[in-house]
Design goal:
The complex is a heterodimer of chains A (228) and B (302). With 228 residues, chain A is α/β, with parallel strands linked by helices. In chain A, 32% of the residues lie in helices and 28% in strands. Chain A has a six-stranded mixed beta sheet with strand order 6-7-8-3-9-10, with helices on both faces. Chain A has a four-stranded antiparallel beta sheet with strand order 2-1-4-5, with helices on one face. The relative contact order of chain A is 0.20. The longest helix of chain B is centred in the last third of the chain and has 46 residues. Chain B is α+β, with helices and mostly antiparallel strands. Chain B is 71% helix and 8% strand. Chain B has a four-stranded antiparallel beta sheet. Chain B has two domains: 191 residues, no CATH class; 98 residues, 2-Layer Sandwich (Alpha-Beta Plaits). The mean pLDDT of chain B is 80. Chain B contains ten helices and four strands. Classes of the chains: A alpha/beta (228), B alpha+beta (302). At the A-B interface, helix 2 and helix 3 of A face helix 1 and helix 8 of B.
Chain lengths: 228, 302
């Protein structure tokens, strides 16, 4: 089953710079895919199109077989509930505890309290942060904060997880821990798409690699490496 | 059910955690609305004072001592029949003397009075004091002399006319000042609430990211805006009730003493004051909600 499909997708910003040019790409359910390329190559635009933070200028995007290009604005929240997002800067809420940050996702989609009490500790165990339930983000290391943000993205078990430079602020040892968690999430059947320019991680994981350069796909390789 | 609980707890948790911003918003509402309310009450009070002065404007028509009973009765009936007339009171020579003695009790003047030099009179109050000139003219004939039986007609002609023009000017100026103050208050409150939402745009961003619907994001902020506006206005009402009333009543005393007005609409005892308070509470809540709504639209495009 095709989880994500781009058909002739282009994104041209208002100042006429083309961030993506005529992208065609199919990502299957359960795949783990690295999106690589230098800064400004279009990786972040790719992710923002998927969560409808931006609209494509041309072409169509299909998610789980459904054309989301002409999705009405009031259907966008529903789409986002099926896509977990992890960012380089974590985007945790500083005035909420670890538990509350993760529970936030479930509250926002209207899950009942008893479900939150079961699901949140479960996912925190998955990322290895169960003991820090009541800590605030500023009391955690960067790696721990990123794990909270993964827990938040995954707590409602979305079929797709997007990660935009999730290890960008972390040292190699900590990054390895994050990659283990993402692999585990992928093993459960989640489609994981990770934008990165962390050469070591890509080379050690040996997953599918799609390389972007100036908005175009210049390489699509199974069990690939970062490139030269 | 689940949702409404979330909204309430979220509103109060966020008020607690964003105490400083909330406190700033509430104080801003309280102070600005206090100023607006205080001014409205001053204006209302001044209008009350003017009304009391107006209602005391009366026409005294003094009669010749030799006037016949029939003529006196005829004139009285005429006055009663005029549509401008509110009340007519006949004061006989004796009553006039009586009153004069009362007013000057203990004074040497009384000893010098022989007999009764005071004339009898009609004291007329009007339904619309503005027409006092017209009414007074009826006691004159075409040549400008008094008609038969009338000795003198007295009313504060210049004083009355000035009073009326001043009233009109004060009314207009006061209205403009209240509008300006109100606009300033709205802008100030709006900016404060806008800042508090701007400070939390990150939270909103995350909410949208994890799939919150726009209304789900909006409602706690609207609650919060309403709460801040409403609490702020309640504080301003309490301030007004104690400080405002105190100052106004002091001011009134001074005016009453210097202008020697008999009766006065005292602030605090009137239902108008209650309406001002209710208006302030509604306004506070409304500005709070609207500010939040507009700020959300501006900063998070929802």
């Amino acid at each position: 089953m095709n989880m994500i499909e781009f058909r002739n997708v282009s994104k041209i910003y208002e100042d006429n710079t083309a961030a993506l040019k005529n992208i065609n790409l199919v990502i299957k359910k359960g795949e783990f895919l690295f999106l690589v390329g230098p800064s400004g190559s279009g990786k972040t635009t790719f992710i923002r199109l998927l969560i409808k933070e931006l609209d494509e200028s041309n072409g169509s995007i299909y998610i789980a077989g459904r054309n989301v290009s002409n999705l009405k604005a009031n259907r966008v929240p529903q789409l986002r509930r099926n896509i977990g997002c992890v960012f380089q800067d974590f985007k945790l809420l500083p005035n909420k505890t670890v538990f509350e940050n993760v529970a936030f996702t479930l509250e926002v989609i209207g899950r009942p309290g008893y479900e939150i009490k079961i699901q949140v500790p479960q996912v925190l165990k998955l990322v290895g942060l169960y003991v820090k339930l009541n800590s605030y983000p500023h009391q955690l290391s960067a790696g721990e904060q990123q794990r909270v943000s993964i827990a938040r993205a995954f707590v409602n078990r979305p079929p797709i997880l997007l990660a935009d430079e999730p290890t960008g602020n972390l040292d190699p040892g900590t990054s390895e821990g994050i990659m283990k968690i993402l692999s585990r999430i992928n093993l459960i059947g989640t489609t994981v798409l990770m934008a990165t320019h962390d050469r070591n991680i890509v080379n050690s994981m040996r997953r599918r690699v799609v390389e972007l350069e100036e908005g175009e796909i210049i390489r699509d390789q199974k069990r690939g490496v970062y490139g030269d | 059910m689940v949702r409404s609980r979330y909204f309430f707890s979220e509103t109060f948790i966020s008020l607690k955690r964003n105490f400083f911003m909330g406190f700033t918003a509430i104080t801003t509402v309280a102070i600005t609305l206090f100023i607006v309310g205080f001014f409205v009450l001053i204006v209302y009070d001044v209008q009350g004072i003017i009304m009391s002065i107006k209602s005391e404007v009366e026409l005294a028509v003094y009669l010749e001592d030799e006037i016949s009973e029939e003529l006196k009765d005829f004139i009285e009936q005429e006055i009663i029949d005029w549509e401008e007339t509110d009340t007519v009171k006949y004061v006989s020579k004796e009553q006039a003397l009586e009153r004069f003695k009362e007013q000057n009790e203990g004074s040497d003047i009384l000893k010098e009075i022989e007999g009764n030099p005071l004339p009898a009179s009609f004291e007329i109050t009007l339904k619309s004091p503005e027409k006092i000139d017209q009414v007074a003219l009826r006691f004159y004939d075409k040549d400008g002399n008094f008609i038969e039986g009338i000795n003198d007609v007295i009313y504060g002609k210049n004083y009355v006319n000035k009073l009326f023009s001043i009233t009109a000017i004060i009314g207009t100026i006061a209205f403009l000042i209240i509008i300006v103050l109100l606009l300033a208050a709205i802008v100030l409150i709006f900016n404060t609430i806008r800042l508090s939402i701007y400070a939390r745009r990150k939270e909103i961003e995350v909410m949208k990211l994890v799939g919150a619907t726009n209304w789900f994001v909006r409602i706690p902020f609207l609650f919060e805006g309403f709460f801040e506006g409403f609490v702020g206005s309640i504080i301003s009402i309490i301030l007004l009730y104690f400080i405002g009333n105190f100052l106004l009543i002091k001011g009134e005393r001074v005016i009453v003493d210097t202008m020697r007005i008999k009766e006065l609409a005292i602030v605090g005892s009137s239902s108008v004051v209650l309406y001002v308070y209710i208006g302030m509470a509604v306004l506070g809540g409304l500005i709070g909600i609207l500010s939040s709504g507009i700020a959300l639209r501006r900063y998070v495009k929802i």
